[in-house]
Every structure is written in structure tokens, then in C-alpha cells.
Amino acid sequence: MPALATSLHLFPNNPILRTKPYFPNFSSTIPFGFSASSSSYPINSNSSLSFVAPLEAILFDIDGTLCDSDPLHFYAFRDMLQEIGFNDGSPIDEDFFINNISGKHNEELCRVLLPDWEFEKAMNFMVDKEALFRRLAAEQLEPISGLENLCKWVEDLGLKRAAVTNAPRSNGELLISMLNLQDFFEVIVLAEECARPKPFPDPYLKALNALKVAPNHTFVFEDSVSGIKAANGAGMAAVGMATRNPEKMLLDAGATLVIKDYNEPKLWENLERVVKEKLPL
User: Which candidate in 61, 68, 70, 223 is catalytic?
Assistant: First the structure.
């Protein structure tokens, strides 16, 4: 597998950043309007993935899970909403982004952010926002630390894998291409091609069907409450990626365990335990 792209600059000269650039500090616990769904497998079960063995597949969200893209979405929304006079012209902050934007599909965001606009006009705003995001992403994209090693581990074991995202096709394809993961994923599922986006389970159910794997032998990497809710609703365990959202928020949503990146020892302890104890030889 090709080496992952690792552009780590903070693009301080980018003209879109009218204030001093910074990555939002999403470490504080923020109330969120979702709760963990019921399921047939244990939630937060001793922070263990052992119940998914024998492991057949791993599914990945893209934004915030493969790469640390939430700050770029935040910058784009902050500047564009300010330009249209949202919140009386005051820029949104990271708390607002977490509570009202992160993990949501663009059609839902039209209703959340621009309820008084005609839907077509609001969707055009979202299209322009995504174009701005892609311009920013083309200049800077940071993969989650340890992703390359995890992808190699998945490939070496011959596990099936899919990317499942609420992002538009152009965004998903750009990020996967910049991370050199075009040949890694067997299936890419876009929420816009499903009847309902995350937090509904439809995108993950479509991925399971495409890969022909059982939900109780598959788990998901997700960074958002809506994504964890979707994975749980499809009958799968979720590993929460606390790249920007607080650990407690992800656990409360139903994540079985939460990690900061793919280098965390507790992740590898779980993966190796699943393989050693129950994966057929």
C-alpha cells in the first residue's frame, strides 16, 4: 500500500483564515441530542471488542476518522456563515460546531442552520461550503496517526473493509485519494445514495450487504455521535475516535471503546485478542 500523505502544515497564509488559525479544542463535554440505541451486543462492555470475533470486516467513516478534517469544515462554515450574517454576523465557535454541525448530513444542516431559506437555496449554500472545504483540504490534510499501520494489519489479515460517509461524493473521493487509500477500500458507501443518512443505519446496512459480512463479526471506526448511532443501529460495535469530540460524548452515544488515534495500546490489545482467541486458523 502506498505511503499515506502527511501534509502537516497549518496553512497560516491561507486567505480564508481571517483570524489567527487554530484547531478547535473539542475536549470539553458538550450535551448532544442523541442517545445510544439498544442492540443485541454489549455496549461499553469492559471496553472490549472480543464479542465480535471471529472478525470478518472493519468499516471506516472518513471525516475525522481517517483524517483530521473537522477543523477544515469548521473554518469553512465559520467564514461562510459569517458572510451571510448568521448569528448577527458573529462567527460561530467550536461549541456551536460540535452541537449543531458535526456529523450531520447537508440536507439536515439546511434545516438546522437555514430554516427560513428555500431548500434549493440552502443546498446551494452547502455546495459552495463543500467546495471551500475541498480547496482547504487540497492544501492541508492530516491522516490520523497510526492509520498506515492499521491499514497494513487489515490487509495482512485479509479482512474486508469499506468506507461509509455522510460526505458528498466529491469530498469522499478527494480525501481517500489524498490519503492514497483508493486501493484499500473494497466498497465506498455514500449516504446520499441511501434512503436515509447517518444517524440512521442505512449506509452501514448497505456496506454490510455489499461486503456480505455479518454485523456481529464486524465493527466500525467512527468519530461522531451520529455515526456511532448509525453503526449501533445496524447491529455493529463502534470504536469512537476522539479526534475532536469528547470521549464521554462518544461513550454515551454507544461506543464500545474510545481511542485518540490508531497507535493506542488498548486498540491493539483488543485487535490482537480478537485474532488470537477466536479467529479461525
Answer: 61
The CA-to-CA distance between both ends of the chain, in Å, stands at 25
Q: Note whether 61 and 234 are within 8 A (CB).
A: no
Question: What's the whole-number mean pLDDT along residues 212-219?
Answer: 97
Residue 215 pLDDT exceeds 60 = yes
Grid look-up 471506516 returns 60
Q: Is 278 left (phi over 0), alpha (psi -120 to 50) or beta?
A: alpha
Sequence-ordered alpha helix ranges (H) in the chain:
70-83, 94-100, 106-113, 119-139, 147-157, 169-178, 202-211, 225-233, 247-253, 265-278
Give the whole-angstrom CA distance, residue 168 versus residue 131. Answer: 10
Distance CA 194, CA 206 (A): 8
Sequential DSSP letters for 221-243 = EE-SHHHHHHHHHTT-EEEEE-S
Report how far residue 153's alpha carbon sits from residue 48's, in angstroms, rounded to the nearest whole number: 19
User: Is 88 a residue of the active site?
Assistant: no
Task: Name the catalytic one among 63, 68, 223, 252.
Answer: 63
Q: Is the pLDDT of residue 197 over 50?
A: yes
93 is catalytic: no
